[in-house]
Amino acid sequence: MDNDDITLPADTLAILNEFLAERTQREHEEEQRMINKTGKDAHFEEDWQLSQFWYSEKTKQAIGAAVAKIVQEHNTPDFRIALLSCPSLYATVKDVHEQVNIFEYDQRFAAYGTDFVHYDFNEVSADYLVEYHKCYDLIIADPPFLSEDCMTKMSRIILSLQRNRASKVVFCSGEVVEPWLLACLPLHKCEFRPEHERNLGNEFVSYANFNFDHYIVNK
């Protein structure tokens, strides 16, 4: 029998058409989900295995407002911002300034397109991330681990990314890292204390190489 001669019963044809319509709808919905997962409005859950803990909305807004003031104060079109291991700040900072890069180990954040820079703080070669050396006027960092090794390696990366000595650095971490951190970078403790969506056991504080508290409202 020729395939052209096959005719499906009406009820079977209706079921097949319904199945095909549902599949098309599912494919469309999946495409929309993928679109929604890209760009600065993408939403990601914390990955605790990577020591990810998102900032509270209050903290994100406070830092975002401070960044806006700093950018306005400098008033230069090539002002560049680097966010190191603090992806929950990205959307807020991106809203106030276009030129921002997010340095992250977690490849999920490649959804942020060309703003995303994959990095691993354990890389210690002098030319690591060389294409980004001396490029940034403001660096905000929140290292994933509270250890001397992490502070030392993160500090090396920060020093390489600073455009010059006038570049501003904000460093948020557990207070326990203070002796290791201050041995590596010329920072001082600020009054501003970042908060997280989840209550963490370690006391979190902020450090900077400038008067960061001056730019913070409602510390």
Automatic annotation (TrEMBL):
The keyword Cytoplasm applies. S-adenosyl-L-methionine-dependent protein-lysine N-methyltransferase that methylates elongation factor 1-alpha. It comes from Drosophila arizonae (Fruit fly). It is found in: Cytoplasm. It comes from the Eukaryota. InterPro entries: DNA_methylase_N6_adenine_CS, Efm5/EEF1AKMT1, Mlase_EEF1AKMT1/ZCCHC4. The lineage of its organism: Eukaryota, Metazoa, Ecdysozoa, Arthropoda, Hexapoda. Keywords: Cytoplasm, Methyltransferase, Transferase. Belongs to the class I-like SAM-binding methyltransferase superfamily. EFM5 family. Its EC number is 2.1.1.-. This is Protein-lysine N-methyltransferase LOC108609985.
